[in-house]
Design brief:
- Helix 1 crosses helix 2, helix 2 packs across helix 4 and helix 5 packs parallel to helix 6.
- By secondary structure, this protein is α/β, with parallel strands linked by helices.
- Strand 2, helix 2 and strand 3 form a beta-alpha-beta unit.
- It is globular and about 50 Å long.
- The chain is 40% helix and 17% strand.
- The protein has one domain: Rossmann fold.
Length: 224
């Protein structure tokens, strides 16, 4: 059984319209690079399919043949209430393409009064917990205690202890983030789109990828 390279996704909803082609190109380039560099390893994207960055990444993944698994923050019919018009059509289309979808289990103690923010936070934590690398379409803003947005998912991915932890998909978490700098519409300072790899230990992600791909190549050879 081959170990997948699991790419989690987090990102802002309010993308600048003029940035979308550049963001799509960078997402496509980064995903294609993984496919080309580690050909023995199936790629899986964990994506909650929220409007904005999530849907953009899901559509690019589908275009280049990457499997999609969708941990949703709440049951589908309730979740659909958070989408409008064209985004709802896109959501339904991507959900149909997902090989699996389910409501994310809570990783934190449930509050006395359940909120949508709590449910979104649990979906983000689930993605961080089960991804080898996080693809973050993020403006670089700081996380807030108890927050439920992109900054909080990035913070969780980077700062939690993950030594010897394995996800249910079999991939070790590396704490690494492919950061696509993504300005938001309401930002005072609006830099251009760019990409960089953020690691706690430089070179660690490449080494994890290398080991995963070597294992998969050996498994393929044994199976003939």
């Amino acid at each position: 059984m081959r170990i997948p390279i699991v790419v989690g996704v987090t990102g802002h909803r309010d993308l600048r319209e003029q940035d979308i082609p550049a963001i799509q190109a960078l997402v496509r380039s980064e995903l294609q690079k993984l496919k080309d560099t580690y050909p023995h390893s199936p790629l899986v994207m964990l994506n909650s399919l929220a409007a904005g960055a999530d849907l953009l990444c899901a559509e690019v993944a589908a275009e280049i043949g990457i499997s999609l698994i969708s941990p949703l923050p709440m049951p589908t019919e309730e979740y659909r209430r958070d989408f409008k018009d064209a985004d709802l059509v896109r959501f339904d289309a991507m959900l149909q393409k997902a090989t699996d979808s389910f409501v994310s289990p809570a990783s934190e103690e449930e509050p006395a009064a359940m909120t949508r923010d709590f449910l979104y936070r649990q979906a983000g934590i689930y993605i961080a917990l089960h991804s080898l690398v996080l693809l973050a379409l993020w403006d670089g803003s700081l996380a807030k205690p108890g927050g439920c947005g992109t900054a909080e998912v990035v913070d969780y991915m980077r700062n939690r202890s993950c030594a010897a932890e394995y996800s249910s998909f079999g991939a070790i978490n590396s704490n690494a983030i492919i950061h696509i700098l993504t300005p938001r519409n309401n930002a005072d300072h609006k830099p251009g789109v760019s990409v960089k790899l953020v690691e706690n230990e430089p070179g660690s992600l490449q080494e994890v990828f290398r080991l995963v791909d070597a294992f998969n190549a050996e498994d393929e050879a044994k199976r003939g």
